[in-house]
Design brief:
Elements lengths: L8 H8 L4 E3 L4 E3 L7 E3 H23 L8 H20 L7 H17 L7 H10 L12 H34 L7 H38 L13 H22 L3 H16 L5 H43 L3
Antiparallel strand pairs: 1-2, 1-3
Helix pairs in contact: 2-4, 3-4, 3-10, 4-10, 6-7, 6-10, 7-10, 8-9, 8-10, 9-10
Length: 328
């Protein structure tokens, strides 16, 4: 139920897309500021928090690991480690032992970041406003291009530095100057190599940002179905009561679909919006029903998206590390 922030759709969307920013020069909280010395506190905070969560979960799993019959949590952690290890073995055939831990950290950290998009769009902003007095709070770090580009640039610099370890200065220099057209076109070779290298972090970072930003926007748009219920004049007993009643109908519809009772589920899915369209049901109720049904469908689909984006970023990390060690 969208009750937080302003009550027209444009202001609501803009409010949810505004970062909590801090100016390092003036030492003040600012809004919609640009510049090198402005940081997005919410993105940095949740990124560090999720890194700590990742470290804690895997630390606990490592300390409680047993050679006997493992529990569900240990099984899940072993599944993640084994999956990443198999991906690294398929793509990376060199001697650096830090590549697999690096890939695991990148993949799981980004998955945890992406998973924040599963939370209701108003929940953490309301907590931030009511408890800490924070007016703006974006809790999806991977929808911040500063975070995604920082991670991709870190991967790029790690791979670039490692290429000197694997090939030496002469090997890296030869790739920049003599590949692919030979020594007679060294300026062209150098230009093409620079473009190739710079394209890696840009494509890796913007791909993650673009997909997660789009997902965040869709959740915010779906929240606009019940945006008006947060206005004082709309928060009547009838509206609030119909919201919870038809939210229950939405949950029942999902339950019926999951238990193969399609006839009843389709009846609710079609009947309630139609009755609301003709004014036979309260607008607040049909809006709540539509929002929950659409948000549930998008959430199920979005689980695939957040997992896929973490996987792609992890695989590209391994591939770039392999390319940095390959000799041409």
């Amino acid at each position: 139920m969208a009750t937080e922030g302003t009550h027209d759709a444009g202001s609501y969307i803009l409010h949810h897309l505004t970062f909590l920013q801090y100016d390092l020069q003036t030492h003040q909280i600012v809004e919609n500021a640009t510049g090198f010395w402005v940081i997005n506190l919410d993105s940095v905070f949740f990124s560090i928090l999720l890194a700590v969560v990742y470290f804690f979960l895997f630390r606990v799993a490592a300390r409680k690991a047993t050679s006997g019959v493992p529990g569900k949590f240990q099984n899940f952690i072993e599944l993640c480690v084994g999956f990443v290890d198999s991906q690294v073995k398929d793509a990376y055939h060199h001697g650096a032992k830090f590549v697999a831990p690096m890939a695991l950290t990148v993949g799981m950290w980004i998955f945890l970041m992406n998973f924040m998009d599963m939370l209701p769009v108003d929940f953490l902003p309301m907590v931030g406003l009511d408890v800490f007095g924070v007016e703006h709070l974006r809790f999806l770090p991977s929808a911040d291009p500063n975070i995604t580009m920082a991670m991709s640039i870190t991967v790029f610099l790690t791979a670039f530095v490692y290429s000197f370890v694997a090939k030496g200065v002469r090997g890296v220099g030869a790739e920049f100057l003599f590949h692919p057209f030979g020594k007679w076109l060294m300026p062209v070779n150098f230009l093409l190599k620079c473009v190739e290298e710079l394209a890696k972090p840009i494509s890796q970072g913007l791909r993650l940002f673009g997909n997660m930003y789009a997902g965040e926007i869709i959740f915010i748009l779906l929240a606009c179905f019940t945006l008006g219920l947060g206005a004082p004049e709309a928060a009547t007993t009838l509206n609030l009561g119909s919201f919870f009643i038809f939210a229950g109908f939405a949950i029942l519809t999902v339950y019926l679909f999951m238990h193969n009772k399609a006839l009843w589920a389709v009846g609710l899915l079609v009947g309630i919006p139609l009755l609301g369209l003709f004014g036979l049901l309260p607008a607040a109720g049909t809006s709540a029903f539509s929002q929950i049904i659409l948000a549930t469908g998008w959430t199920i689909f979005h689980i695939l998206i957040i997992s896929l984006q973490a996987y792609i970023f992890m695989v590209l990390t391994v591939v770039y590390m392999a390319m940095s060690a390959d000799h041409h």
